[in-house]
Amino acid sequence: MLRYCTAGESHGEALVAVLSGIPAGLAVDAAAVDHELWRRQQGYGRGGRMKIERDAAHFVSGVRNGQTIGSPISILLENKDWKNWQEALPVAQGDPERHRRVASPRPGHADLAGALKYNFPEARYVLERASARESAARVALGAIAKLLLRELGVEVLSHVVGVGSAVVQEAVEWEAIVPLAQREEVVLNCADPAMEQRMKAEVDQALRSGDSVGGIFEVVAHAVPAGLGTYANWDERLDAQLAAAVMSLQSVKAVEIGRGIAVAGSPGSKVHDEIGFSPGARDRAGFTRPHNHAGGIEGGVSNGEDVVVRGYVKPISTLRRPLASVDFTTREPAKAAYERSDVCVVPAAGVAGEAMTALTLARCALEKFGGDSLGETVRNFKGYCRQLQEY
Ligand SMILES: Cc1cc2nc3c(=O)[nH]c(=O)nc-3n(C[C@H](O)[C@H](O)[C@H](O)COP(=O)(O)O)c2cc1C
Predict the structure, then answer these.
(1) pTM of the entire structure?
(2) SS3 221
(3) Cross-strand partners of 6
(4) Residue 117: its pLDDT value, please?
(5) What is the C-alpha separation between 142 and 19, in angstroms, rounded?
(6) Between the CA atoms of 35, 39, 41 and 46, what dihedral angle is there, to the nearest 10 degrees?
(7) Mutation test of ligand 1: which of 42, 126, 131, 339 has the most ligand atoms closer than 8 Å to its C-beta?
(8) Fold of the domain spanning 3-389
(9) Is residue 80 over pLDDT 60?
Protein backbone atom coordinates (compact mmCIF):
# COMPACT_ATOMS: atom_id res chain seq x y z
CA MET A 1 0.00 0.00 0.00
CA LEU A 2 1.29 3.45 -0.89
CA ARG A 3 1.49 5.66 2.21
CA TYR A 4 3.12 9.00 2.80
CA CYS A 5 3.48 11.77 5.32
CA THR A 6 5.38 14.99 5.76
CA ALA A 7 6.91 16.83 8.72
CA GLY A 8 8.55 20.19 9.21
CA GLU A 9 7.71 23.80 9.87
CA SER A 10 7.90 26.75 7.52
CA HIS A 11 10.94 28.30 9.25
CA GLY A 12 12.28 25.15 10.89
CA GLU A 13 15.49 23.47 9.88
CA ALA A 14 14.02 21.33 7.09
CA LEU A 15 10.97 19.61 5.66
CA VAL A 16 10.91 15.83 5.74
CA ALA A 17 8.81 13.61 3.48
CA VAL A 18 8.35 9.84 3.70
CA LEU A 19 6.85 7.62 1.01
CA SER A 20 6.38 3.91 1.55
CA GLY A 21 5.15 1.27 -0.91
CA ILE A 22 7.00 2.20 -4.12
CA PRO A 23 8.25 -1.00 -5.78
CA ALA A 24 11.97 -1.68 -6.02
CA GLY A 25 13.77 -0.88 -9.26
CA LEU A 26 12.17 2.43 -10.18
CA ALA A 27 14.75 4.84 -11.60
CA VAL A 28 14.62 8.10 -9.63
CA ASP A 29 16.13 11.03 -11.43
CA ALA A 30 16.91 13.59 -8.72
CA ALA A 31 16.90 16.35 -11.35
CA ALA A 32 13.31 15.46 -12.27
CA VAL A 33 12.30 15.78 -8.60
CA ASP A 34 14.11 19.12 -8.28
CA HIS A 35 12.43 20.36 -11.45
CA GLU A 36 9.02 19.71 -9.90
CA LEU A 37 10.15 21.60 -6.78
CA TRP A 38 11.27 24.47 -8.99
CA ARG A 39 7.90 24.52 -10.75
CA ARG A 40 6.13 24.86 -7.37
CA GLN A 41 8.22 27.93 -6.60
CA GLN A 42 7.26 29.77 -9.79
CA GLY A 43 4.41 32.02 -10.81
CA TYR A 44 3.64 35.71 -11.09
CA GLY A 45 2.63 37.10 -7.70
CA ARG A 46 4.88 35.05 -5.44
CA GLY A 47 6.50 36.71 -2.41
CA GLY A 48 10.12 37.21 -1.33
CA ARG A 49 10.43 33.75 0.26
CA MET A 50 10.70 32.15 -3.15
CA LYS A 51 13.84 34.18 -3.81
CA ILE A 52 15.48 32.77 -0.68
CA GLU A 53 14.54 29.11 -1.11
CA ARG A 54 15.88 27.02 -4.01
CA ASP A 55 14.50 23.65 -3.13
CA ALA A 56 16.60 20.56 -3.74
CA ALA A 57 15.64 17.05 -2.64
CA HIS A 58 18.18 15.25 -0.49
CA PHE A 59 17.40 11.52 -0.50
CA VAL A 60 18.05 10.06 2.93
CA SER A 61 16.75 6.53 2.38
CA GLY A 62 14.98 4.19 -0.03
CA VAL A 63 16.97 5.20 -3.14
CA ARG A 64 20.43 3.85 -3.89
CA ASN A 65 22.39 4.48 -7.08
CA GLY A 66 19.38 6.23 -8.58
CA GLN A 67 16.97 3.34 -8.02
CA THR A 68 14.33 2.60 -5.41
CA ILE A 69 15.07 -0.39 -3.20
CA GLY A 70 11.54 -1.13 -1.99
CA SER A 71 12.02 0.34 1.49
CA PRO A 72 10.49 3.67 2.61
CA ILE A 73 11.87 6.65 0.74
CA SER A 74 12.69 9.67 2.86
CA ILE A 75 13.56 13.07 1.51
CA LEU A 76 14.91 16.14 3.25
CA LEU A 77 14.31 19.66 1.95
CA GLU A 78 16.43 22.22 3.69
CA ASN A 79 14.85 25.54 4.67
CA LYS A 80 17.44 28.11 3.66
CA ASP A 81 15.48 30.76 5.60
CA TRP A 82 16.02 28.85 8.85
CA LYS A 83 19.22 30.69 9.71
CA ASN A 84 17.27 33.96 9.79
CA TRP A 85 14.68 32.52 12.17
CA GLN A 86 16.55 30.63 14.83
CA GLU A 87 15.98 33.29 17.44
CA ALA A 88 12.69 34.48 16.05
CA LEU A 89 10.60 31.47 16.98
CA PRO A 90 9.32 31.61 20.56
CA VAL A 91 11.23 29.40 22.98
CA ALA A 92 11.19 29.18 26.76
CA GLN A 93 14.67 30.70 26.93
CA GLY A 94 16.02 33.55 24.86
CA ASP A 95 15.16 37.15 24.29
CA PRO A 96 11.36 37.58 24.04
CA GLU A 97 11.96 40.83 22.17
CA ARG A 98 13.35 38.84 19.25
CA HIS A 99 10.44 36.43 19.02
CA ARG A 100 8.30 37.13 16.00
CA ARG A 101 4.87 36.85 17.56
CA VAL A 102 1.77 36.77 15.41
CA ALA A 103 -0.10 39.17 17.64
CA SER A 104 -3.45 39.40 15.85
CA PRO A 105 -4.86 36.44 13.89
CA ARG A 106 -5.40 36.76 10.14
CA PRO A 107 -8.96 36.11 8.95
CA GLY A 108 -8.77 33.19 6.53
CA HIS A 109 -5.57 31.75 7.95
CA ALA A 110 -5.27 28.99 10.56
CA ASP A 111 -4.08 31.51 13.21
CA LEU A 112 -7.12 31.80 15.47
CA ALA A 113 -8.54 28.28 15.16
CA GLY A 114 -5.07 26.79 15.65
CA ALA A 115 -4.19 28.96 18.67
CA LEU A 116 -7.48 28.04 20.36
CA LYS A 117 -7.03 24.35 19.58
CA TYR A 118 -3.43 24.03 20.81
CA ASN A 119 -3.80 26.60 23.60
CA PHE A 120 -1.04 28.88 22.25
CA PRO A 121 -1.00 32.51 23.45
CA GLU A 122 -0.35 33.67 19.88
CA ALA A 123 -0.21 32.08 16.42
CA ARG A 124 3.47 31.69 15.48
CA TYR A 125 3.58 27.91 15.83
CA VAL A 126 0.20 27.57 14.14
CA LEU A 127 1.28 29.17 10.89
CA GLU A 128 4.67 27.49 11.02
CA ARG A 129 2.98 24.17 10.26
CA ALA A 130 -0.23 25.37 8.56
CA SER A 131 1.87 27.24 5.98
CA ALA A 132 1.92 25.92 2.42
CA ARG A 133 5.69 25.58 2.67
CA GLU A 134 4.64 22.02 3.58
CA SER A 135 3.34 21.49 0.05
CA ALA A 136 6.97 21.42 -1.19
CA ALA A 137 7.38 18.08 0.62
CA ARG A 138 4.27 16.74 -1.10
CA VAL A 139 5.56 17.90 -4.48
CA ALA A 140 8.79 15.94 -3.90
CA LEU A 141 6.78 12.79 -3.15
CA GLY A 142 4.44 13.48 -6.05
CA ALA A 143 7.45 13.63 -8.36
CA ILE A 144 8.27 10.02 -7.46
CA ALA A 145 4.64 9.00 -7.98
CA LYS A 146 4.84 10.64 -11.41
CA LEU A 147 7.94 8.61 -12.27
CA LEU A 148 6.09 5.43 -11.34
CA LEU A 149 3.02 6.42 -13.36
CA ARG A 150 5.24 7.22 -16.35
CA GLU A 151 6.30 3.55 -16.36
CA LEU A 152 2.61 2.79 -16.94
CA GLY A 153 2.34 5.44 -19.67
CA VAL A 154 0.44 7.93 -17.49
CA GLU A 155 1.44 11.63 -17.35
CA VAL A 156 0.08 14.24 -14.91
CA LEU A 157 0.21 17.98 -15.56
CA SER A 158 -1.73 21.13 -14.67
CA HIS A 159 -2.68 24.48 -16.11
CA VAL A 160 -4.40 27.54 -14.76
CA VAL A 161 -8.01 28.05 -15.78
CA GLY A 162 -8.73 31.22 -13.83
CA VAL A 163 -7.19 34.03 -11.80
CA GLY A 164 -9.74 36.39 -10.25
CA SER A 165 -12.31 37.26 -12.91
CA ALA A 166 -10.09 36.15 -15.84
CA VAL A 167 -11.34 32.63 -16.58
CA VAL A 168 -10.79 30.38 -19.61
CA GLN A 169 -14.18 29.07 -20.74
CA GLU A 170 -13.22 26.51 -23.39
CA ALA A 171 -11.86 23.02 -22.67
CA VAL A 172 -8.05 22.90 -23.05
CA GLU A 173 -6.57 19.95 -24.97
CA TRP A 174 -3.76 17.84 -23.50
CA GLU A 175 -1.47 18.90 -26.38
CA ALA A 176 -1.77 22.53 -25.24
CA ILE A 177 -0.93 21.68 -21.62
CA VAL A 178 2.28 19.73 -22.29
CA PRO A 179 4.41 22.70 -23.49
CA LEU A 180 3.48 24.74 -20.40
CA ALA A 181 5.50 22.40 -18.18
CA GLN A 182 8.56 22.97 -20.39
CA ARG A 183 8.52 26.76 -20.13
CA GLU A 184 11.66 28.22 -18.62
CA GLU A 185 9.74 31.17 -17.26
CA VAL A 186 6.39 30.55 -15.62
CA VAL A 187 3.99 33.46 -15.58
CA LEU A 188 0.53 32.12 -14.74
CA ASN A 189 0.73 28.72 -16.46
CA CYS A 190 -2.23 29.45 -18.69
CA ALA A 191 -2.49 27.84 -22.13
CA ASP A 192 -4.20 30.91 -23.63
CA PRO A 193 -1.64 33.78 -23.97
CA ALA A 194 -4.26 36.55 -24.15
CA MET A 195 -6.02 35.22 -21.06
CA GLU A 196 -2.68 34.91 -19.30
CA GLN A 197 -2.16 38.65 -19.79
CA ARG A 198 -5.59 39.31 -18.30
CA MET A 199 -4.65 37.08 -15.35
CA LYS A 200 -1.41 39.04 -14.92
CA ALA A 201 -3.43 42.26 -14.83
CA GLU A 202 -5.56 40.75 -12.04
CA VAL A 203 -2.40 40.06 -10.01
CA ASP A 204 -1.06 43.56 -10.74
CA GLN A 205 -4.30 45.07 -9.49
CA ALA A 206 -4.06 43.01 -6.28
CA LEU A 207 -0.41 44.05 -5.84
CA ARG A 208 -1.28 47.71 -6.33
CA SER A 209 -4.13 47.69 -3.85
CA GLY A 210 -2.48 45.60 -1.11
CA ASP A 211 -4.95 42.80 -1.81
CA SER A 212 -4.68 39.17 -2.99
CA VAL A 213 -6.35 37.07 -5.66
CA GLY A 214 -7.39 33.41 -6.02
CA GLY A 215 -8.36 31.27 -8.96
CA ILE A 216 -8.77 27.83 -10.46
CA PHE A 217 -6.21 25.23 -11.53
CA GLU A 218 -6.93 22.11 -13.54
CA VAL A 219 -4.93 18.90 -13.21
CA VAL A 220 -5.08 16.48 -16.13
CA ALA A 221 -3.88 12.88 -15.89
CA HIS A 222 -3.35 11.61 -19.42
CA ALA A 223 -3.62 7.96 -20.55
CA VAL A 224 -5.01 6.66 -17.27
CA PRO A 225 -6.20 3.10 -17.93
CA ALA A 226 -9.85 2.24 -17.34
CA GLY A 227 -10.38 0.47 -14.04
CA LEU A 228 -8.61 2.45 -11.28
CA GLY A 229 -10.75 2.96 -8.17
CA THR A 230 -14.02 1.19 -7.51
CA TYR A 231 -17.67 1.83 -6.67
CA ALA A 232 -17.53 -1.18 -4.32
CA ASN A 233 -16.83 0.92 -1.22
CA TRP A 234 -17.28 4.64 -0.62
CA ASP A 235 -13.69 5.27 0.36
CA GLU A 236 -12.29 3.42 -2.63
CA ARG A 237 -14.04 5.60 -5.22
CA LEU A 238 -11.40 7.35 -7.33
CA ASP A 239 -13.32 10.64 -7.44
CA ALA A 240 -13.68 10.67 -3.65
CA GLN A 241 -9.98 9.91 -3.15
CA LEU A 242 -8.94 12.65 -5.57
CA ALA A 243 -11.32 15.16 -4.01
CA ALA A 244 -9.90 14.53 -0.53
CA ALA A 245 -6.31 14.65 -1.78
CA VAL A 246 -6.67 17.92 -3.69
CA MET A 247 -8.89 19.51 -1.02
CA SER A 248 -6.18 18.78 1.55
CA LEU A 249 -3.97 21.40 -0.10
CA GLN A 250 -3.68 24.75 1.62
CA SER A 251 -6.07 27.35 0.10
CA VAL A 252 -8.11 24.87 -1.96
CA LYS A 253 -11.75 25.36 -0.97
CA ALA A 254 -13.59 23.40 -3.67
CA VAL A 255 -12.74 20.51 -5.96
CA GLU A 256 -14.44 19.67 -9.22
CA ILE A 257 -14.17 16.42 -11.17
CA GLY A 258 -14.52 17.04 -14.91
CA ARG A 259 -17.24 19.67 -15.45
CA GLY A 260 -19.00 18.66 -12.24
CA ILE A 261 -20.12 22.18 -11.35
CA ALA A 262 -21.44 23.15 -14.78
CA VAL A 263 -23.26 19.85 -15.37
CA ALA A 264 -25.25 20.24 -12.17
CA GLY A 265 -27.23 22.97 -13.95
CA SER A 266 -27.62 21.26 -17.34
CA PRO A 267 -29.99 18.59 -18.68
CA GLY A 268 -28.61 15.04 -18.68
CA SER A 269 -28.96 14.77 -22.44
CA LYS A 270 -26.45 17.62 -22.86
CA VAL A 271 -23.75 16.54 -20.44
CA HIS A 272 -23.21 12.79 -20.42
CA ASP A 273 -20.38 11.54 -22.60
CA GLU A 274 -22.04 9.32 -25.20
CA ILE A 275 -20.38 5.98 -25.99
CA GLY A 276 -19.10 4.98 -29.42
CA PHE A 277 -16.88 2.21 -30.72
CA SER A 278 -13.84 2.36 -32.96
CA PRO A 279 -11.70 -0.78 -33.30
CA GLY A 280 -8.61 1.50 -33.52
CA ALA A 281 -8.94 2.75 -29.92
CA ARG A 282 -7.46 -0.50 -28.60
CA ASP A 283 -6.06 0.92 -25.38
CA ARG A 284 -9.61 1.73 -24.30
CA ALA A 285 -11.02 -1.61 -25.45
CA GLY A 286 -12.25 0.27 -28.52
CA PHE A 287 -14.81 2.43 -26.70
CA THR A 288 -14.77 6.15 -27.52
CA ARG A 289 -16.38 9.35 -26.18
CA PRO A 290 -17.02 12.58 -28.10
CA HIS A 291 -16.21 14.66 -25.01
CA ASN A 292 -15.13 14.18 -21.42
CA HIS A 293 -17.49 16.10 -19.13
CA ALA A 294 -17.20 13.29 -16.57
CA GLY A 295 -13.48 13.98 -16.16
CA GLY A 296 -12.54 10.39 -16.88
CA ILE A 297 -14.38 8.88 -13.90
CA GLU A 298 -17.78 7.18 -13.81
CA GLY A 299 -19.05 5.33 -10.74
CA GLY A 300 -15.81 6.05 -8.92
CA VAL A 301 -13.84 4.12 -11.58
CA SER A 302 -11.52 5.56 -14.25
CA ASN A 303 -13.11 5.01 -17.66
CA GLY A 304 -10.08 5.39 -19.94
CA GLU A 305 -10.51 9.11 -20.69
CA ASP A 306 -8.16 11.72 -19.21
CA VAL A 307 -8.79 12.22 -15.49
CA VAL A 308 -9.55 15.92 -14.91
CA VAL A 309 -9.61 17.54 -11.46
CA ARG A 310 -10.01 21.23 -10.71
CA GLY A 311 -8.98 22.97 -7.51
CA TYR A 312 -10.59 26.27 -6.52
CA VAL A 313 -8.05 28.40 -4.69
CA LYS A 314 -9.16 31.12 -2.30
CA PRO A 315 -7.26 34.44 -2.26
CA ILE A 316 -4.27 34.54 0.09
CA SER A 317 -5.29 35.72 3.56
CA THR A 318 -2.15 37.70 4.48
CA LEU A 319 -2.93 41.18 3.18
CA ARG A 320 -0.70 44.23 2.95
CA ARG A 321 -3.83 46.21 3.78
CA PRO A 322 -4.89 43.95 6.66
CA LEU A 323 -8.45 43.12 7.64
CA ALA A 324 -9.87 43.76 11.09
CA SER A 325 -8.81 41.43 13.86
CA VAL A 326 -8.25 41.41 17.61
CA ASP A 327 -5.00 41.50 19.57
CA PHE A 328 -4.40 38.09 21.22
CA THR A 329 -3.15 39.72 24.44
CA THR A 330 -5.24 42.84 24.92
CA ARG A 331 -8.38 41.61 23.06
CA GLU A 332 -8.58 45.13 21.66
CA PRO A 333 -9.39 45.68 17.97
CA ALA A 334 -6.22 45.45 15.85
CA LYS A 335 -5.21 45.04 12.24
CA ALA A 336 -4.49 41.43 11.28
CA ALA A 337 -0.82 40.47 11.32
CA TYR A 338 1.21 40.93 8.14
CA GLU A 339 4.45 39.33 7.10
CA ARG A 340 6.04 38.78 3.70
CA SER A 341 3.52 36.93 1.61
CA ASP A 342 2.49 35.69 -1.80
CA VAL A 343 -0.28 37.57 -3.57
CA CYS A 344 -1.29 34.87 -6.05
CA VAL A 345 -0.38 31.16 -5.81
CA VAL A 346 -2.69 29.51 -8.35
CA PRO A 347 0.06 28.06 -10.64
CA ALA A 348 1.99 26.75 -7.62
CA ALA A 349 -1.17 25.26 -6.13
CA GLY A 350 -1.67 23.54 -9.50
CA VAL A 351 1.76 21.90 -9.24
CA ALA A 352 0.89 20.72 -5.73
CA GLY A 353 -2.45 19.50 -7.16
CA GLU A 354 -0.51 17.46 -9.72
CA ALA A 355 1.46 15.87 -6.87
CA MET A 356 -1.68 14.92 -4.94
CA THR A 357 -3.32 13.57 -8.08
CA ALA A 358 -0.21 11.55 -8.99
CA LEU A 359 0.07 10.12 -5.46
CA THR A 360 -3.61 9.12 -5.53
CA LEU A 361 -3.41 7.51 -8.97
CA ALA A 362 -0.17 5.74 -8.05
CA ARG A 363 -1.82 4.31 -4.94
CA CYS A 364 -4.82 3.08 -6.96
CA ALA A 365 -2.53 1.65 -9.67
CA LEU A 366 -0.44 -0.22 -7.09
CA GLU A 367 -3.62 -1.56 -5.49
CA LYS A 368 -4.76 -2.87 -8.86
CA PHE A 369 -1.47 -4.12 -10.29
CA GLY A 370 0.55 -4.82 -7.13
CA GLY A 371 4.21 -5.76 -7.43
CA ASP A 372 7.20 -5.53 -5.11
CA SER A 373 9.54 -4.83 -8.02
CA LEU A 374 8.84 -2.51 -10.92
CA GLY A 375 9.16 -5.43 -13.35
CA GLU A 376 6.36 -7.25 -11.54
CA THR A 377 4.14 -4.16 -11.52
CA VAL A 378 4.68 -3.50 -15.22
CA ARG A 379 4.14 -7.16 -16.12
CA ASN A 380 0.82 -7.18 -14.28
CA PHE A 381 -0.13 -3.87 -15.89
CA LYS A 382 0.63 -5.19 -19.38
CA GLY A 383 -1.40 -8.31 -18.70
CA TYR A 384 -4.35 -6.12 -17.76
CA CYS A 385 -3.86 -3.96 -20.89
CA ARG A 386 -4.02 -7.16 -22.98
CA GLN A 387 -7.25 -8.06 -21.23
CA LEU A 388 -8.67 -4.65 -22.22
CA GLN A 389 -7.52 -5.06 -25.81
CA GLU A 390 -9.10 -8.49 -26.07
CA TYR A 391 -12.32 -7.42 -24.35
C1 LIG B 1 1.65 27.34 -2.92
C2 LIG B 1 0.95 28.09 -1.82
C3 LIG B 1 1.58 29.20 -1.25
C4 LIG B 1 0.94 29.93 -0.25
N5 LIG B 1 1.56 31.06 0.25
C6 LIG B 1 0.92 31.80 1.19
C7 LIG B 1 1.49 33.02 1.66
O8 LIG B 1 2.57 33.44 1.22
N9 LIG B 1 0.80 33.70 2.61
C10 LIG B 1 -0.40 33.27 3.11
O11 LIG B 1 -0.98 33.92 3.95
N12 LIG B 1 -0.97 32.13 2.67
C13 LIG B 1 -0.34 31.38 1.73
N14 LIG B 1 -0.93 30.24 1.27
C15 LIG B 1 -2.21 29.83 1.83
C16 LIG B 1 -2.17 29.36 3.27
O17 LIG B 1 -1.19 28.37 3.44
C18 LIG B 1 -3.54 28.85 3.72
O19 LIG B 1 -4.54 29.76 3.36
C20 LIG B 1 -3.57 28.67 5.22
O21 LIG B 1 -2.66 27.67 5.59
C22 LIG B 1 -4.96 28.32 5.76
O23 LIG B 1 -5.40 27.11 5.21
P24 LIG B 1 -6.70 27.02 4.31
O25 LIG B 1 -6.65 28.15 3.34
O26 LIG B 1 -6.59 25.69 3.62
O27 LIG B 1 -7.89 27.11 5.22
C28 LIG B 1 -0.33 29.52 0.22
C29 LIG B 1 -0.95 28.40 -0.35
C30 LIG B 1 -0.33 27.70 -1.37
C31 LIG B 1 -1.02 26.52 -1.98
Answers:
(1) 0.97
(2) strand
(3) 17
(4) 98
(5) 9
(6) 160
(7) 131
(8) Chorismate synthase, AroC fold (3.60.150)
(9) yes
